[in-house]
Write a structure and sequence with these properties.
The chain is elongated. With about 160 residues, the protein is mainly alpha-helical. Mean pLDDT is about 85; it is low at about 20-40. The chain is built from five helices and no strands. It has two domains: about 1-35; about 45-160, Substrate Binding Domain Of Dnak, Chain:A, Domain 2 (Up-down Bundle). It has helices at about 5-35, 40-45, 50-80, 85-110, 120-140. InterPro entries: LprI-like_N. This is Lysozyme inhibitor LprI-like N-terminal domain-containing protein. It holds the Pfam family LprI.
Length: about 160
């Protein structure tokens, strides 16, 4: 075998190998696109950033109202505890701190995406996700019982879970 043929063969092998790797990476990237797209796209299928954000704001207002409902139910249950004054004070303090955490976390999300128009949507989605999580936590911790007693309010269900 000649050296020129071996050089061509080696270059061809490297090219084919690189092509296979590039194709695999591309295919893997394409396959994960639906998984990495924000959930907001499914909930708010607008065509423009303002339309999407208006939809996200409306969804956020509905979720915030749901949070208020679950917080009020938890407070009502805590009023029946053995030390309602102390327990309510701690619960309310925890809720206030959670709201501070949510605000700071979502401001950080806004800052992380500050180079693009998606930053507002990412901040709104952050708030939505954390609020839904808080509602689930309140339901699990404060509105359910360890025995067969039915929960004070139904298990929270959100649009993406339906």
């Amino acid at each position: 075998m000649t050296t020129a043929w071996m050089d061509r063969h080696d270059r061809h092998e490297r090219f084919c190998s690189m092509k296979a790797v590039t194709g695999s990476v591309f295919l893997a990237g394409v396959m994960t696109l639906p998984c990495t797209a924000p959930a907001a796209a499914a909930r708010c299928p607008g065509m423009t950033t303002p339309e999407i954000q208006a939809c996200q704001r409306a969804a956020g207002q509905r979720t915030e109202a749901m949070l208020d409902r679950y917080v009020m139910a938890a407070e009502q249950r805590l009023r029946q505890s053995s030390d309602p004054r102390h327990t309510l004070a701690q619960f309310r303090q925890a809720q206030d701190r959670w709201k501070q955490y949510r605000a700071m976390e979502c401001r950080a999300m806004f800052a992380a995406w500050s180079g693009g128009t998606i930053r507002g949507s990412m901040e709104l989605q952050c708030s939505q996700t954390l609020t839904e999580s808080r509602i689930r936590d309140i339901w699990q911790l404060w509105l359910t019982y360890p025995d067969t007693t039915p929960p004070t309010l139904p298990r929270p269900i959100f649009p993406a879970q339906e």
